[in-house]
């Protein structure tokens, strides 16, 4: 009878532990998609049935505040690190690092020096360090060796590779014998065309429609591969776009001697490196040069931009008002559409939509920050977040009731050190995380204790019972 009771106790303890561990999320699959330069209001410019399908059966955030400056590489690195540009180090598409004495240029595709990227750790490396696998189709930075690592699978950047080919690779990696749990997919439109035409051009309608068709193709392929219902799809972009005009040009040659400075990055935020001994002359010449140009010494850059504390940010930056264009002179290249302006401007804001088992259905949220995506990704992937500037608490209402919701970083992601701009997590959120680990620990202890008792009982049950006469022999001693 005692043996049966022990067996029952042992089984109950094992069930208790299994229930405790079943509270952790299943291994989630996440596909992060960026349509470069897809401005938030493009969703309503022309019919976009596939985007609206995701919105109806998933979640949509109306206003996404990206980081300054609102350029491609800084914002794509923010999406996968959760950091402001001053913290992750990719402060512009074109940079000069005075410590390394090296340059970085998207325009010349001189972007492969690992040292520029290693002030942060992107999500694919964190995911792989946790024992998982990642796949990237042209996402900026994924073909760069960062901290001695590439994604498990990746495509070297080649703009001529079609969207359909990129999707095929992503599907292949998600359905292989050793499937990835994180995919990243990038497409250059509508950014490329909007630079040429300007976002206000009627010709942008067909471009937006084509991006919507491409999303429809992705959904179709995910359904065909039986991934649509089990994968968390996140659709976003890096920035918006604003209309420019040749009547709104600021020519630096009208105010500066070109021999006194180096123009590291151009419109709409001119990054200016004065020659030795020329700082004051350059600054004074630009400070009040044009009513639509605001000039800052690096230490005077507004704190809300989080764009000050990095040596790659040049000693002087000149920021154009929305729709204004900075050139050395009118012989330089000019584009009818541009971005990079103040990240508070609505026309700089991107999109955010998501669909999948972890997300709510037909839910609209008013606002989020692009830095919040990274802790959300870590939460979904069940990996420990690196220090970041985001907040899972700010976007946790996007998650379905079935998704784990224990704390701002999830039950399996530690609370990272607070960086500039972070809001400290609430005590109740931290306690929720502690409660989970306490539950797991207690469940483990219970099973171990019962296992030891069970083993002891088995051992004792194998020892022959001593004959009764031994008890009789000892009896006189007891009486004495």
TrEMBL record:
InterPro entries: Alkaline_phosphatase_core_sf, Phosphodiest/P_Trfase. GO terms for molecular function: hydrolase activity; metal ion binding. The gene is ENPP5. Belongs to the nucleotide pyrophosphatase/phosphodiesterase family. Its cofactor is Zn(2+). The keyword tRNA processing does not apply. It is a single-pass membrane protein. CDD domains: Enpp. It is found in: Membrane. One of its GO terms (cellular component) is membrane. Residues 1-22 form the signal peptide. The chain crosses the membrane at residues 434-455. The keyword Nuclease does not apply. Its main location: membrane. Keywords: Glycoprotein, Hydrolase, Membrane, Metal-binding, Signal, Transmembrane, Transmembrane helix, Zinc. This is Ectonucleotide pyrophosphatase/phosphodiesterase family member 5.
């Amino acid at each position: 009878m005692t043996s049966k009771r022990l067996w029952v106790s042992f089984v109950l303890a094992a069930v208790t532990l299994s229930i405790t561990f079943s509270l952790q999320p299943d291994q989630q699959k996440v596909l992060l998609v960026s349509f470069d330069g897809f401005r938030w209001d493009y969703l309503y410019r022309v019919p976009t049935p596939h985007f609206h399908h995701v919105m109806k059966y998933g979640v949509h955030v109306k206003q996404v505040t990206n980081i300054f400056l609102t350029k491609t590489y800084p914002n794509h690195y923010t999406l996968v690190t959760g950091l402001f540009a001053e913290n992750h180090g990719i402060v512009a598409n074109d940079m000069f690092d005075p410590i390394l004495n090296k340059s970085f240029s998207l325009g010349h595709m001189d972007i492969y020096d690992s040292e520029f990227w290693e002030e942060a750790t992107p999500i694919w490396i964190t995911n792989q360090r946790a024992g998982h696998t990642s796949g990237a189709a042209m996402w900026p930075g994924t073909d760069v060796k960062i901290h001695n690592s590439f994604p498990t699978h990746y495509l070297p950047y080649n703009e001529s590779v079609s969207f359909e080919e990129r999707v095929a690779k992503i599907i292949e990696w998600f359905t292989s014998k050793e499937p990835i749990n994180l995919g990243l997919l990038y497409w250059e439109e509508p950014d490329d065309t909007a630079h040429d035409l300007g976002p206000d051009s009627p010709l942008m309608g067909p471009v937006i429609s084509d991006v919507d068709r491409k999303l429809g193709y992705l959904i179709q392929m995910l359904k065909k591969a039986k991934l649509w219902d089990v994968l968390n799809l996140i659709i976003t972009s890096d920035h918006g776009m604003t209309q420019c005009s040749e009547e709104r040009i600021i020519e630096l040659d009208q105010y500066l001697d070109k021999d006194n400075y180096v123009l590291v990055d151009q419109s709409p935020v001119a990054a200016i490196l004065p020659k030795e001994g020329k700082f004051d002359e350059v600054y004074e010449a630009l400070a009040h040069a044009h009513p639509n140009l605001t000039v800052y010494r690096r230490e005077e850059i507004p704190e809300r931009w989080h764009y000050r504390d990095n040596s790659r940010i040049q000693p002087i930056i000149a920021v154009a008002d929305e729709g204004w264009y900075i050139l050395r002179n009118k012989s330089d290249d000019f584009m009818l559409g541009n971005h990079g302006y103040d990240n508070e401007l609505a026309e700089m804001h991107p999109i955010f939509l998501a669909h999948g088992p972890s997300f709510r259905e037909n839910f609209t949220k008013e606002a989020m920050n692009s830095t919040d995506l990274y802790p959300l990704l870590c939460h979904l992937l069940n990996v420990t977040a690196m220090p970041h500037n985001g907040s899972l608490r700010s976007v946790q209402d996007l998650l379905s009731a079935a998704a784990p919701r224990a704390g701002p970083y999830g039950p399996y992601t530690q609370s990272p050190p607070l960086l500039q701009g972070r809001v400290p997590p609430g005590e109740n959120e931290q306690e929720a995380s502690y409660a989970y680990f306490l539950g797991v620990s207690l469940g483990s202890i219970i099973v171990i204790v019962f296992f030891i008792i069970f083993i002891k009982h088995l051992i004792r049950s194998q020892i022959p019972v001593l004959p009764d006469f031994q008890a009789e022999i000892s009896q006189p001693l007891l009486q004495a």
